[in-house]
Design a protein that fits this description.
The protein is an alpha+beta fold. The chain contains 11 helices and 10 strands. Pathway: Pyrimidine metabolism; dTTP biosynthesis.
């Protein structure tokens, strides 16, 4: 069975057996609780082929996490807009914003074409300010203590900084049989300061037969838009760390808490389920780089990626 079938099975299961629930965004979801998918990374890179998924966005976001960065300026410099809405929300809710009313902009932009035009103008201004104005970027570009901060700069009660990612790589190299090869993004003390509490909360590595496997626990997953990114992102992270540690890749195991399809994504999911699978791509790493902290976007590429066309869907903020 191709790796991607595990994802399509999840989609069908939630459509058939999920529970319709109200949610934070007001859109509504169909949800299940507790699900696991397994992806054999030896079979190819698990980027979906039943719709085009933008690998460069996944790679630049992961590199942003690895750098310990929490400001969207780096993402915008790489033409990556996937975190914009959360930073934009901070700006339009601040005392410094004096533009048109942007309350509930995510839902209103989907329902009102005139409002969407105004929203797009304000978003374009926001992005320009982030890229060109250092003071503005410092004030409104940060997303709080999200993933990169927790991975690279966890603050202890003793005032020390813990670099979890660097530590886990060291432990994989020196004690590969350890059962403590864990990185956690869920820091209860920092949750109130985060634009979005971590959805992918904890990951653990496992070394066997010269192969590195990774299991992710994800508390909440947007099945249509978010989970395809998460699968590819953690597969890429596993490849990068295996490369640095001199290991082959094993499995990526994706364990989900609340796995949901938004009500306004049903049509898109059904379209995707009607498509046939295509052979997965292969990942190419710049083998001249030996540390994951030295990689940049130009060191990562795919070969043989020939998916079905992309399928657009609105983001719930």
């Amino acid at each position: 069975m191709m790796n991607e079938q595990a994802y399509l099975d999840l989609c069908q299961h939630v459509l058939n057996d999920g529970h319709d629930r109200h949610d934070r965004t007001g859109v509504g979801t169909r949800s299940i609780f507790g699900y696991q998918m397994r992806f054999d990374l030896q079979q190819g890179f698990p980027l979906l082929t039943t719709k085009r998924v933008p690998f460069k966005l996944i790679a630049s976001e992961l590199l942003w996490f690895i750098k310990g960065d929490t400001n969207i300026r780096y993402l915008l410099q790489h033409n990556n807009n996937i975190w914009n809405e959360w930073a934009f929300k901070n700006w339009v809710e601040s005392d410094e914003y004096n533009g048109p009313n942007m309350d509930n902009f995510g839902i209103r932009a989907q329902q009102d074409a005139n409002f969407n035009a105004v929203y797009q103008e304000q978003m374009a201004l926001f992005k320009q300010y982030i890229l060109e104005d250092d003071t503005f970027a410092e004030k409104f570009g940060h997303l709080g203590d999200v993933y990169g901060k927790q991975w690279r700069h966890w603050q202890s009660t003793q005032g020390e900084t813990i670099d979890q990612l660097k530590q886990v790589i060291h432990d994989i190299k020196t004690n590969p049989n350890s059962r403590r090869l864990i990185v956690s993004a869920w820091n209860p003390e920092d949750i109130p300061t985060m634009a979005l509490p971590p959805c992918h909360t904890l990951f653990q590595f496992y070394v066997e037969d010269g192969k590195l496997s990774c299991q992710l626990y994800q508390r909440s997953g947007d099945i249509f838009l978010g989970i395809p990114f998460n699968i590819a992102s953690y597969a890429l992270l596993t490849h990068l760390i295996a490369h640095e540690c001199g290991l082959d890749v094993g499995e990526f195991i994706h364990t989900l808490g609340d796995a949901h399809i938004y009500h306004n994504h049903f049509e898109q999911v059904n379209t995707q389920l009607e498509r046939h699978l295509v052979d997965p791509p292969k990942l190419q790493l710049n083998k001249d780089k030996t540390s994951i902290f030295d990689f940049d976007i130009h060191d990562l590429s795919l070969t043989g990626y020939d998916p079905h066309p992309s399928i657009k869907a609105p983001v719930a903020v």
